[in-house]
Each structure stands twice: as structure tokens, then as C-alpha cells.
Amino acid sequence: MPDVAMPRLSDSMEEGTILKWLKSDGDEVSKGEELVEIETDKANMTYEADEAGTLEIVASEGDTLAVGETIARIGEGGGPEDSGEQEEEEPEPEEEEEEDEGEPEADADEDDEEPAPKESSDNGRVKASPIARRMAEERGLDLADIEGTGPGGRIVKADIEKAGGGEAEEQPAPEEPKEEEPRKPARDGEAGRGDVEHVELNRLQRTVARRMAESKATAADCV
Q: In sequence order, what E strands does the chain have?
């Protein structure tokens, strides 16, 4: 089943964020059909399917992945039907199947006693999105102890927040309510000032601000 990797949509792009899947898991897609909307460091762009087949989503909306990481897979349709035809052509004796049913039950009891190992990638690392891996490192959490809820058992941002959010909320002691002091009359020049609201910039606005600051710092001074 061919993988759909995070595309490099610009020369400076190192990672992208899944904003919205335009197709659902299991949908049949055609070549050239729009699959997903991706946020880059410059703009929001849509990515099209390179080939036709059945879509299997790997990365969830909101995940940030490096360029080249797998975000989905596109497989050929008709697989389940073909396998069903082969089973009809070569039926197995029912008596042998009934005799073997007792052994899997014993194996199932042993599996209940020993927890199954978490799914990992080919190189032995626990499957997790880049942002989840970074948050776990900042909070001192071990990814091997966290249960992933993403596609294929992948650990996503919400799993890290669930694992480390409860302890962080219990640490700070409740503050005692302070008595409100009477407001002083506004001085001259201060009248008309309202509350200041700080708005966090998005990825595109941060990039523009950084480029403007670099341009100002490197511009030659006129004498």
C-alpha cells in the first residue's frame, strides 16, 4: 500500500500541520483529487492524490509532521472481495476448525495477563507526532508509558495533555481572593485607555514579522 508523505510545498518548508482532511478514512479517491489541507510557514495549501485507491488516514487533524513523514496510505480497492472469492473456491473442513478453537482461548488468557507491547516504528521508536514528542520531552514524560489514541496507536498532542495535564493542575495552590482596591481617578493623559489584549500570531504572521525584523536589521544605513 503506497504511503502518502508530508509534501514539501515550499523551498523553506521543514514541517507542516494537518488543518483538515477533505476525504474520510476508507473513501475511494481518484488521481488528482484534493485530499488534505496543510498549513506551512508561508500559507495554507491543499495536497492532491498522486494515484487512485482507498484512503487510509494515518495523521490526525492538528498533527504537525516533518517533511517526508507518512500522513496517509492509498491502497488498491477490491481486496476484501477477492479474498472472499478465494475462500469460497477452497473451503476448509469445519471439523478441524472447531477442534482448533480451544487453543486460541488459552492463548487469549495469557495475553490478558501480559500487556501487549506498544506499536513502534521500524527503528524501534514509539510512534508519536513531532509535537507530541516535543511536549513529552518538555514535561519529562516517557512515551512508552503513554497510550496513543491516534491512527495505528500513534501518540498525538491530546494524549500528552491527558497524561501530564492533571498533575500540572494540582500543583499550584489556590490563591486567596484579594480585596479590590478603590480605583484612583485617572490622571491627565491616561483617560481613554482601555484594556490591552495580546493576540497570539499564527505561523504565517510569525514568519512575516521575522522576515521584516531581519530586513530592518540588515538594511544599510544612509549617510
A: 3-5, 15-21, 28-29, 34-39, 44-48, 53-57, 64-66, 70-75
